[in-house]
Amino acid sequence: MSDAFDFSVPPFDRLTPEQRQRLAAALDLGVYARDGVILSRDEPADCLFVVRQGLVHERRGGEVVAVYGAHDSFDLQALFSDGQARSFVAAEDTLCDLVPRPILLELAHENAAFGAVIQQEFADRLSALANERSNRETAALTMARIREAYLRPPVFVEAGASLRDAAAAMKRDQASSVLVRDGDPKKGGRVGILTGTDLRDLVVLEGRPVDSPVGPLARYELLALDRDDLLFNALILMTKHSVRRLVITEQGAVVGLLEQTDLLAVLSNHSQVVALKVDRAATPEDLGRASQDIVGLIRTLHGTGVKVSFIADLVTELNRKIFRRLFELLAPPDLLANSCLIVMGSEGRGEQLLKTDQDNGLILRDGYVCPSLSQVTDAFTRHLVDFGYPPCPGRIMVSNPDWTRPLALYKDSLFHWIHRPDEAAQMNLAIFYDAAAVAGDASLLAEAKGYLLGRLQDNQMFFTAFARPALAFDTPSGLFGGLFERRRSEAVDIKKAGIFPIVHGVRALALEKHMAETNTTERIWALADQGVLDRGMAGELADAFTFLSTLRLKAGLDGSVSGTQTDNLVRTESLGKLDRDQFKDCLALVKKFKELLAYHFHLNH
């Protein structure tokens, strides 16, 4: 059937007749029924798929992000990298020609024109993926306020000060300008500005004596905006007047100067500014300041309607950068080389939005001993507390020796948690299953997880016990229907009633199937790919999880200025009608999912 391959389609039209014959001989044919999984998440590909007939959906997080029809090809990214966080599903009965990776590389090497197209398509694909997040964030930040940007502290000199005094003030405070006070502003005085460029022109080009007073030389027509004004208004003002800085006021008082570089940094990509601060941090205190910037980013993105899944991805990336950099600042090089710092729980799943309790650990290479280990781990926990990450009530932190252990002892614990599963063991196993590597040698965590999945057996009693906590908390329905008017002022713990049953129920199903995914939404769609959940239920669960997480984020932002998740309570009377109806539907779906879990894991026996 490979004779039917259409060589008129680019880039295959660039092959020579002899190369076409070799490719045709190497081709295979893939036949996929409607809703069949062609390529699953994080699965490396060994061939390029070229659609002969049918339709293929590329899915990410349950959403269809691309559609491939006849003559379209996929997936170069999976073919030349370590997999992808996407899956490809046949939207109808589909035939695909399969181009093996070796012949594709061979022809790309031989035929420069063919290879150039393949290389360019791969580069374009990576560029599009990289730009996708940046574009979404930039769009959201169009509504950012000036207070989201870094303001340079104002440096004042009096009008009688000399040009030399102004230069010395700029050098002392590492400023590019000074503000000049000419009299008391409260009594009709004025404030002007003198920049480093002005100083250079006055002294070098005009030959002004360095002891000349700055008062008559300053410019007093200041361009000023309030701190709560839009950043885009600042950009327009700078562009209109061809200036590089604006004076920023709050309640009429000067609070700083907004430099053009700082404004553009925020508008181009705020997360990259935070990441840059993390990368450049020389002390834990620097990291603490960067950590506080994340809260403002979350508020801006949420306030401008960005999806909670995107915010979670971004916050996960920035949090892990902070944890990694802190560990690098505290740990000696030999400890970094012989350990793996891990995060667990919501941080491990990539679902932490605001700062919840610490859940972290350290896996040491067998036989390695670090004399300063306790000082490093104690300092790590202490600094994270200072950054706003509360200590774990269960002491699941690197400062607890039970969670800073050699790999062999972690394996011993995993054996115990699997084969003697009391309540504490089940909790430990659940959070460890969610673990992700943050710093050090990630192969240590990979080996531990491989041991975990390898020890699991088809033991119904074990999985029944492991899944049972998903039903531990009540999911109320009396808040709605006939009792709604009487009980609408009651608060619902959204984590216990909705989020935890989804997270742990999906985790139990994923563990039973020995899945490597850690993120709840990715687990949901991986379960759908394997037929454990039908796609309708998977889509509803993913949507419900997103909606409930969004409500939880809003409750946390409303209840906390520090960015710490202190409130899981949702008060139904505070919801609009649409949100209230959707909340009701989500809780009803959670109840339905619990029934599915009870049946699947025999939890009613």
From TrEMBL:
SMART domains: CBS, cNMP. Coiled coil: none annotated. The keyword Transport does not apply. Pfam families: CBS, cNMP_binding, DUF294, DUF294_C. Residues 11-87 form the Cyclic nucleotide-binding domain. Residues 150-210, 217-273 form the CBS domain. Keywords: CBS domain. One of its GO terms (molecular function) is [protein-PII] uridylyltransferase activity. This is Nucleotidyltransferase substrate binding domain-containing protein.
